[in-house]
């Protein structure tokens, strides 16, 4: 069936989902402008990245419900999604780390930015980036989360450099990282940890540069759970009864 043979309502719905995905480019642009603005109003950068994250979290589900790939087969929303993800999860956070965070002398900070941007290609271009039980294989280029943790915890340059190098290496190593909604094991705990981490992070961004100890502890514990869940998966292996479908996360 050609595109024109679908009802107008279905075609409008499909294009609406594409427009929603493409709106991520708007939020990315606003975040980038805030990042390089001399006024250093970084709270707004995080707000725009959050909006982009929310869009990224819902557009895939909406695309499947609207049968976007069936109704508009010639326009690949998946490519748009990858572009937006690279900008919001990797490129803008990497630039932010260079211009706003203690990352050592400028040449060192520039080299680290280049390593972050280039190593992330081994995530975005990796056809084996997810396991049969929906774990990410290799660090999933979530540099927005890394940069956010550096920012709210106000960690020193030596710590930031070491952690950045570790995650650059882990991008190339087949370690595992839990997807909070898709991984079956500990799913309720994973979703709860994400919610707690999200609220604690928003609070710390709002009160920055203050760092209430209770919020810092909550942030580290809830975020640390995901690292632990990934370590446990790497040690025990995949759940044998799990099979993977050819769908996006």
UniProtKB/TrEMBL annotation:
GO terms for MF: phosphatidylcholine synthase activity
EC number(s) per entry: 2.7.8.24
Listed GO biological process terms: phospholipid biosynthetic process
InterPro entries: CDP-OH_P_trans, CDP-OH_PTrfase_TM_dom, PcS
GO CC term (a single one): plasma membrane
Catalytic activity: a CDP-1,2-diacyl-sn-glycerol + choline = a 1,2-diacyl-sn-glycero-3-phosphocholine + CMP + H(+)
Pfam families: CDP-OH_P_transf
Record localization: Cell inner membrane
Key words of the record: Cell inner membrane, Cell membrane, Lipid biosynthesis, Lipid metabolism, Manganese, Membrane, Phospholipid biosynthesis, Phospholipid metabolism, Transferase, Transmembrane, Transmembrane helix
Name of this chain's protein: Phosphatidylcholine synthase
Native species: Actinomyces oris
